[in-house]
Amino acid sequence: MGKRTEARDYIRLVVSEWVEGPHRSNVLAAAAQIVDEGDGASLFDALRKQVGLHAEDYELVRRLMLLLEAAMDVEPRVAGYLMARLYPLAGRKYAHDVYNAVELWMDASDSMALADALMALSEEPVRPLLRKCYREWAEGIKKRASGKRTE
Hints:
This protein has about 150 residues and is mainly α. It has 8 helices and no strands. Helix 1 runs antiparallel to helix 2, helix 1 (about 5-20) packs across helix 3 (about 40-50) and helix 7 runs antiparallel to helix 8.
């Protein structure tokens, strides 16, 4: 079995465990490690496939968002990173409530770890407008985090 196959199997295992119990910190820590190692796109794709087994379009986007919102308080870096990946999909599927909710989560966050994850995401191969959006979110989050520290 090749290293890439092992990595995909591990990602599928993490996603499967996450969908079964989204608040388990060890699973979210494993997801964070996957993102940190640069495999966030694969994590998102596996999550989308797992959640979308019996859902399409809007329902898929809504289910993903519910799962990510549940994880946001536990692991904002991973949940926010994946929300940012969900953002363009929500737009394409006309899931305006999810699209707007992602923006609200980003506008409310003060997690420096999420800001760093968004900056890393902006360096991945994404459309220029998304790159700009991710960077703006990261800058806003950094400002809020800095303000929180000085209080």
